[in-house]
Structure formats: structure tokens, C-alpha cells
Amino acid sequence: MKRVLLVDDDADLRLALKLALEASDYQVIEATSGQEALHMQRREPADVLITDIFMPDSDGFEAIEGFRREFPATSIVVVSGGGGRTKLDYLATARLAGADATLQKPFEIDALLETLRAL
Amino acid sequence: MDEVRLLARSFQASIDAMRASEERLRMALAAGRMGNWEWDVRTGRVGWSPDLEAIHGLEAGTFPGTFEAYERDVHPEDREGVRRAISRSFEGGGDHHIEYRIVRPDGAVRWVEGRGKVFRDPSGAPLRLVGVCTDVTERKQAEDQLRQAEERMRSVVDHVVDGIISIDEQGIIQSFNPAAERIFGYAATEAIGRNVRMLMPEAYSREHDAYIANYVRTGEAKIIGIGREVEGRRKDGSTFPLELAVSVFHIGARRYFTGVVRDITERKRAEEALRAASRAKDEFLATLSHELRNPLAALTAAAHVLKITDATKEPAIKARAVIERQTRHMARLIGDLLDIGRVSAGKVGLERERLDLAATVGRMLNTWRGSDRFGRHRLTHSLDEVWVDADPARVEQIAANLLDNALKFTPAGGTIRVTVGPEGGEAVLRVADQGVGVEPAEQGRIFELFEQGREDGSGMGVGLALVKRLVEPHGGTVTIESEGEGRGATFTVRLAAVARPEQAQGGEAAVLGARSVLLVEDNDDARQMLEAALVSGGHRVRTASDGASGLALAAESAPEVALIDIGLPDMEGYEVARRMRAAPGGRGIALVAITGFGRPEDQQRAFAAGFDAHLTKPVTAERLKQALASLA
Known about the structure:
heterodimer, A: 5-stranded parallel sheet, 44% helix, globular, B: alpha+beta, 7-stranded mixed sheet, 5-stranded antiparallel sheet, 19 helices, elongated
């Protein structure tokens, strides 16, 4: 069973994604910041990191950078609502920083599952 | 005979010459509007030439020939001056030279210039006064016009808001108007005669010398006639942006430059404010996108779970809860967004009624507890009855936005403290958080629309702006106090307090048997659960999460009942009870111990410390109710 580390500061979003992923037989562990995700990964590594970008304590870019440095084998999927038609395209920046795939919130769960399968 | 003829011819020639000379003089006098006169002092007889009569507007030969007749023609205001000038000529000096007005028979006023000379006998007594008189009205008028034009120009230069400075080809300041004095801080006397470079920062002054040199050499004007923005330097050394327009003028062969300068500091500031507003709007749109997409993502995921799992199983139940919370959250977000527009446009009317601010806020806190909004935080509160005339829906919105803000910026595990109560004739609501705080410099802007608390884009800059726009129509104020970054913040809303309505018996605080209860419990869940049970029983509750703050609250609020957990982080509940009893007024408090240990010796120990009752965990609402009733 693939292990997913889910990083988002929004508790409800974590809960909903966790429920959805668990229903598709993923094992899900949660973190609320980039720093916390790194600590958890060092203790018990996950196969995939799914991270938000905007988080109050330590943001998604920190997570991407840390994972690329310490855990190059871990796949990274970035999900953010900040991309798209606004001036700053966070998702494009995340891909440059080393994310394997990006999804703009809101996304269909099937699209996320497809992304995870394709990694 | 020849001699006689010769003499006669010569005499004739002299007479001809004299006639010619007289004719020339007459023509000259007429051309110059000049007339001559002679006053025989001994006879008093005054003779005028026809030209002088013409100047005075008289027919030739009609001047009566007296000084009095002459004086009558002089303008009444100038008579004294004329008389004085003539007497001076008689007494001491020889010539006189005066300008004065005359009034012609038709009433026309003319300016004349008179020159006169006194002739005396060998003893020095005056014999005759002889003189010429010139009509100088046109010159006078031209002079007047010039003076008026100059005055008009001077008035413009002196009162215009723009600085006007003229310099010569060497850059030496020739004139410096009052506006230039104001703009640069130099007095005109300090500036005139010095090089204009002193009004420019170093970089510009070097450029300036090159400009002038180049213009003088080539006639090629880089800045003549067109405005451009440059930097100015004041007397105190400070620099500022200014707009400069230069024109060139000549006096004789010399060239001068006039610079019109305008201090555009304010305009620059306004432009910067506009850019900042535009930036804030862009950031707002970026954040709005995030804030709206996030709950949608949660809703999408939850809907997916409902689709693929058994509706009666736990995942579906949790997913439904997510949907409930997130739709509520989105509804509030959208409501705020729509409200801010309507409130800003002044379209929101208040439906005021008399309400207990403490009860209104208390109800809201309970609802939020029920929906687990405080899951990651600790909430303490102290709610004292105080009445206001306010729109209950708006009051809830104000409190909700302040709480939302506190939750958003306080890290998990942090405490949020809510207090409501009367303070010097006002009803005061305070929400204190342990969040990121606000730097003093930022505090003025925190209530502005689209001002976000943080660079990372959390928060939209709508909630607090809405609070301010809802509080102010109530005649109230909202303020923030924070010692700065990382030091938390306290928001204070002040509304005018009003008298409690006479029929107010039904409020939560007025339930029969209601007590003021102090609850000291360090476990968040237990504290919140007990508090909710007490509040729903109509009691007024204050909470503390450790012994020290419990003791402080007891001293401050003199509760009727104190519920004290025994296992507190800083001191044992027994110690708290002993100190509470020993404090002034502590005898009257009913003390209830809450412990995890129900053995008889535990109860004994509690009673020895001063407790009146002893409750073993878990404390249910029913048992709590019984315990409180038994203390009556």
C-alpha cells in the first residue's frame, strides 16, 4: 500500500483528502507545515508528498526544497489554489522547484488518483 | 547811408532770425505740448503763451493773467504742493521742478510738469518768475500702467504656489520668490547672489552646470520650455522631488534663465498610494482565489468520498461534517465579501435592538464550540452582562470576524481570550490572541480593505475591514493593541452601554439559580465540555487553564462557585483551593474539586484543603447540575 504524506494547513481539506485517498487504498499521514512534513519523513518515509503552497508556518516551497535535497526518490505533487489567472503562478514555480505534478484547487479526486498512478 | 542800410538789414536779419527762432520754439513747444509763462512779481501780472492756454484747455488769449486764476486750475489736492514749491523758489533756491494735476474747464484732469526760475534785482529781491510747463499726462498714464503691470506681476510672483527663481548665465540667483523660500527653506536674501547649485543634490548640480554651459555654447536647450522632474535640496539638506520648467530671457546682451519649480512630494505620495492600492488589489485577487478554491477542494474531495463509500460508515459521516463546515465557511466568506461592498456603499441599515452583549457573544462561542472551530486552540473567556443598542446580526458578525482573525493568526495550541463587560459607561468586547502580532507601524492600516496580515497571503484583508465598517455605524470604535511581531494582538470594540431593559428576565444570565462559576481545568476538551454544560445551564462562567490564572481570576471576579481540577500544570488543585479560601472574600466561595481519583482518602484530602464538594471524572452535565444544586 502506497504511503502518502499530506501537507496542508487546512484541517478539513486534509480530512477530506485523507478519507478520499483511504477509500482508494492509500495510507495517509498528515502534516500542517513544510517543516513538520520533513520531520515526519525522516522518521517514517512516505512514497508521495502531496503539499499545499500557502501555509502560515513553513510553506510548500520549503517542503519541496527539503524533499528534493533529502529524499530525491519521493514523488512530489503540489496542490494550490493560488495559481491560474493571477499574476503569480505558484504552480509553475513549484514545477521549476522540483514538483513532479501540480493540481490547481479545486480538482477532481479522480484527477488526483490518476496523477498518483502515473508517478 | 550804406551804414544805415547795412544796420537796418542786419536788424531786419536779427528780427527775422528771432521770428524764426520764436517760430521754431513755438513749434517745439506745441510738439512737446509745452507752454511758457512769466510772472511779474511787482505787478502781479501773469503772462501765458497760447500753448500753455491750450494745455489748460483755454482759448488763446482768454487766460485772465492772475496767479489766483492759475491756482484755480490746479487740482485741489495738488495746490498746496505747488504753492510750497513756488515759495521755496522765492525764498532760497532758484529753480523749481514739480509735477501736478490741473483740471480743465471741461473737467478733464491732466498731469503737467512745471519748471521755473526766479530772476532777482541786485538787492536779491525777486523780480520775475519764468517757466515752462509740459503736459505729461500720456507719460504719467504709461508710468501708471507700467507700475500696475509690475504690481500685478509682483503679486503673481509673490503669491503663486510655484517657486520662481531667475539666474544668470553663471547660475547666480537673481530673484527668489516667497514660494521658492517656502519650498527650499532659504530666505530670498540668503539665496540671491549665490549659485543655484545649492538647491540641488550633488548629482544634479554637476549635470546642471553642464546644461547651462551647453546651452550657452550651442543654444541647444534640453530643458527650456518643457517641464521635467528633478530632485531639489532644501536648506536643511533634505531632498524632494520637484517639477522644473525653464524659460530664457534677455536683458541687453545678457541672457537670464527663469525656473518655475513645483514641490511634487504630495503628488508622488499620492501616486505611490495609488500603486500600493493597485498592488493590494492584485494581492487580494490572488488571495481570494486561494481562499475560495481551498474550501472547494475540500468539498470536492468530501463529495467524492460520499459517492464511493457507504453513507452509514464513518468516512461518509466525516465527509458530511466537512461539507457542512466548509459550506458554512464559504458562505461566511462570500457573505463578508458581499457585505463589504454593501457596507462601503452605505447600503447596510442597522436593525437595532437592546441586547446583552455578553449573552450574544456567549451564544456565538457555544455555537462555534459545537462546530469544533476551536479544535486546535484554547479559548478562555469572561462574559459580564452589559447592554447595548445594536443590530444583533451585526454584533455576531463583528465578534465572529474578530474570532476568525484570532484563530487564523494564532498557532495551534495558542490561547484566545474573549472578554465582554462594562467599562466606564461603555460596553467593551475584547479578543486577545497569541498570534503573529502587528508591528506598531502597521496597526493604523490593519482595518483597511485588502490589507493582509501577512506576506504569505493568509487572510484576505476583508474581515477586519468589515469589523470597522460595522462597528462605526453603531457609533462605536475598534482598536488594536500589539507590542509587535510575534507578541499577539488584542482587538477592542467599544459600544455605548445602555440600561438593562426592565423585562429582561429571560436572558441566559438570568436563569433561576444561575451562578457565577470559575472553572479551572487544564485539559482543553474537558474545560470546553464543562463550560458548555455550565453555560447552557444559564450560569456565568469564567475559565482558567492553570492555578495561577485561576487564583487571579478569582480575586478579580469573586465567583460564587469554583470548579477546580486537581491535576493542574503549575500547582495542585488542593493548593489552589487553600489559597482561594485564604484570600479576602474566599470564605464564601463554594469550592468543587474535580479529580480522576475517587477513593475515600482522595475525598478526605479535598475536604481538608477546603473543598465543599468532590466530583470524580468524567463529570457529566447531569452530575454537574446536581452538584451545583446541592451547594445552594
